[in-house]
Design goal:
Helix content: over 70%
Shape: elongated
Largest sheet: none
Oligomer: single chain
Order of helices and strands: HHH
Strand content: under 5%
Length: 69
Amino acid sequence: MTWWSVLLVPACLLLAAGLLLLTAWLEASVLCPRSVILHAVRVRKASPEHIELLVAQQAAPLLGERRVS
């Protein structure tokens, strides 16, 4: 085993941990229903009917999860 192999193991673990942290942040801040709704509201070309439909689609699963819990 060369010294490169010894250095690659912690580097791979750090890379995997970094990817997990990045995806957790992305899911929590960019892909959450609140962010999707706010982005749809900020878009100037979106009609009120489109925004209402989007909010209803995003809210339905959230309300369903709260009823089960």
